[in-house]
Amino acid sequence: MVLDADATKQIKILLNGQNIVMPAWKQLSDTEIAAVISFTKNNWSNKTGQMVQPADVHAARQ
Ligand code: HEM
Questions:
Q1: For ligand 1, what atom is nearest to the CA of residue 36?
Q2: Measuring from atom 33 of ligand 1, which residue has the nearest CA?
Q3: What is the distance between the alpha carbons of residues 62 and 52, in angstroms, rounded to a whole number?
Q4: What is the residue-wise DSSP string for 7-56?
Q5: Which residue lies with its CA nearest to atom 31 of ligand 1?
């Protein structure tokens, strides 16, 4: 999922949490959430070259 071309699912998990156990991070700014997702997409052995923009996070907020 971190490697998916479409980051929408990952953005929504960060904003809303998942299955009660993963906390929501909606208190973070659009820039912070975009940065942490872009980091997970391009570090360790992950080399997607994808950058999530703050505008993408803004659009996914309810
Ligand atoms: C900013 C920090 C964090 C990021 C970027 C992050 C990211 C993610 C993502 C993307 C997933 C979904 C994985 C998948 O379904 O393939 C996930 C799941 C999960 N996260 Fe986090 N997480 C963070 C912090 C935390 C913290 C602090 C906790 C616990 C206190 C936590 C607990 C969990 C758990 C338990 C799951 C699995 C939920 C399930 O089984 O459905 N995460 N996290």
A1: 5
A2: 22
A3: 18
A4: -HHHHHHHHH-BTTTBPP-TTS-HHHHHHHHHHHHHSTT--------HHH
A5: 22
Report CA-CA distances (Å) from 31 to 19, 34, 38, 45, 56. Answer: 25, 5, 10, 23, 10
22 Cα to the center of ligand 1, angstroms? 5
pLDDT in tens, 1-57: 999 999 999 999 999 999 999 999 999 999 999 999 999 999 999 999 999 999 999
55 Cα to the center of ligand 1, angstroms: 22
Distance 21 CA to ligand 1 centre (A): 8
Asked if pLDDT for residue 62 goes beyond 80, the answer is no
